[in-house]
Amino acid sequence: MNEGLLVVISAPSGGGKGTILKELFAKDDNLVLSVSATTRSPRPGEEHGKQYYFLQKEEFEELISQGKMLEYAQYVGNYYGTPREPVEQWMAQGKDVVLEIEVQGGAQIKKLMPGCVSIFILPPSMEVLEKRLRDRGTEEDATVRKRLEKAREEIPHAKDYDYVVFNDRLEDAVEDLRAILRAEKRKYHRNETAVERVLDHAETVR
Amino acid sequence: MNEGLLVVISAPSGGGKGTILKELFAKDDNLVLSVSATTRSPRPGEEHGKQYYFLQKEEFEELISQGKMLEYAQYVGNYYGTPREPVEQWMAQGKDVVLEIEVQGGAQIKKLMPGCVSIFILPPSMEVLEKRLRDRGTEEDATVRKRLEKAREEIPHAKDYDYVVFNDRLEDAVEDLRAILRAEKRKYHRNETAVERVLDHAETVR
């Protein structure tokens, strides 16, 4: 069995990543969503190992010092990161593991794990993004403008990713992601052993 | 409009490339098959511009010296090659152009056109390949063995290609090819302008 893929997905604010991933997971039962670790306190309803692994600061720092965090960052006084062990276990079982990473984390991940497949999801245009944010109807004008400003800063980070998927029609975006995963599994470097196996067999039947 | 892809496809003898490509072309109307040029004489029923562009030796050599051949090779005293102009015209129109290339030509093409997408189609095992060759019922035992021997020499060339597709179930192989084309169109380097356009628009609505 081949090792699974490590798939890094980022999207600027309001890029619609959540909806796309939900559809993707519904269609692909070989996918696993990586659970992040954090030192912030659980909110009501959050469970350890589900939304996050909730760790003490000392535990988190020990994992860092032991090289057991694939990536991590600090954000308003708390650590957030990806524990290496569960990711590697899933991959060894042939599962494709999805990491949702902040846009700024893409370059770091690619350096740490050059074998990962990184995908940046972005809106087809700023107008569409603005319309989507406003149509939610839940956000004040100032919040919408702040999110647009943030997206504008984040979009140029697309250059650090292998692929870009435009979130225009939902179904197309989902099919793009599925095609990327399928194609990546066909890369030669992930199939060296399989190619050798074709020839090995040849020896036995000669 | 984005430029089309240049897709190089090779397969060892008896790899079933013909059937796969037929299915692929039936499903993807954005694909164009490149027509090769040759200095060999047309066989009965062959038309200039259809199976091949039939050229005089002097014409072919002039195209070479003018850099108008994407790649070429000599084979039993005749030239075979890919004229650059029609390929580039199709690509400029957004069409994906498929070049069928001899296994040995893969490395050359990749050097000449690093932007191409190269795919190696191979049988799932030598047993399957042998069975398929024998099931045709048209080939003598010696011919089958010669083809198997040739395939064995060709398969290691898979390492010069970006992707490998195993021709196990036909539908899977075709879907693999379609996924590869779709994914390649989502590569960041093919979408720089599209990403910039998202932000350009932002300026106008600010």
Order of H and E elements of chain A: EHEEEHEEHEHEHHEHH
Of all protein chain pairs, which has the greatest interface, and how many residues does each chain bring to it? A-B, 42 and 41 residues
**N-to-C span of chain A:** 26 Å
Indicate the CATH architecture of the domain at 6-34 and 95-204 in chain A.
3-Layer(aba) Sandwich
Structural class of chain A: alpha/beta
CATH superfamily of the domain at 6-34 and 95-204 in chain A: P-loop containing nucleotide triphosphate hydrolases
Fraction of residues in helix of chain A: 40-55%
Using the CA coordinates, give the radius of gyration of chain A: 19 Å
Q: Given the C-alpha coordinates, what overall shape of chain A results?
A: globular
Q: Can you give a write-up of this model?
A:
The structure is a homodimer of 206-residue chains. The first copy, chain A, has 206 residues and is an alpha/beta fold. Chain A has a domain at 6-34 and 95-204: 3-Layer(aba) Sandwich (Rossmann fold). The first copy, chain A, has eight helices and nine strands. Chain A has helices at 17-27, 57-65, 84-92, 106-112, 126-135, 141-154, 170-184, 192-205, and strands spanning 6-10, 31-33, 36-38, 52-54, 69-75, 78-83, 96-100, 117-122, 163-166. In chain A, the strands form two sheets. Chain A has a five-stranded parallel β-sheet, sandwiched between helices. A four-stranded mixed β-sheet of chain A has the order 4-3-6-5. In chain A, helix 1 packs across helix 7. The longest helix of chain A is centred in the C-terminal third of the chain and has 15 residues, at 170-184. The first copy, chain A, is globular. At the A-B interface, strand 8, helix 5, strand 9, helix 7 and helix 8 of A face helix 5, strand 9, helix 7 and helix 8 of B. Chains A, B: GO terms for molecular function: ATP binding; GMP kinase activity. Chains A, B: Keywords: ATP-binding, Cytoplasm, Kinase, Nucleotide-binding, Transferase. Chains A, B: This is Guanylate kinase.
